[in-house]
């Protein structure tokens, strides 16, 4: 024997609405939870079913004192359907109007774009020009490293980095002098600490050699 199929949500909604339509009365939720099983709707799902009907304006609720009552009349469903119908009619008219406007716009755009030998020739020239533009753009990209503006920007960046490095070197020497002055008895410990962080006798200010543009370009050509 096959297992009995449970009611779908739509079927549960119809069953609960029928309770209201048959009695045209007002109910508390706990009363509906008792009446639901008689229509095949288990009491545990009555609350969710009723709430879905309230959300769709098919069932109304109101609080009277400390109790919440639910009700629905056949006329309520009729009014709801009429409202839905009117909204759909309004949307349909708007969609038809928009479609007419788009068709007219499409026809206007087609004017002057009819297939012809002149149009085909113009499109062919446009395609060739776009291809040439792409080739020139790719070619320019190959020479980007030798761009004077790029070189000047690189040169400026090197100067900024050089100044920053020497500024930190100067700060390091200043800190060493301060430590020597304030901790004269810790000379060996300080020297050992300096060695650990890479500050040794070779530590000094950096020089910024001047490299002519021509030499830079020659180096780039030799090492592409």
From TrEMBL:
Which GO molecular function terms does the record list?
double-stranded DNA binding
Identify one Pfam family in the record. Mnd1
- The source's domain of life comes to Eukaryota
Recorded GO cellular component terms are: nucleus
| Keywords of the record | Coiled coil, DNA recombination, Meiosis, Nucleus
Q: Does the keyword Transmembrane helix apply?
A: no
GO terms, biological process: reciprocal meiotic recombination
Q: What is its main location?
A: nucleus
What PANTHER family does the entry give?
Answer: MEIOTIC NUCLEAR DIVISION PROTEIN 1 HOMOLOG (PTHR31398:SF0)
Please give the family membership noted in the entry.
Answer: Belongs to the MND1 family.
Which named protein is this? Meiotic nuclear division protein 1 homolog
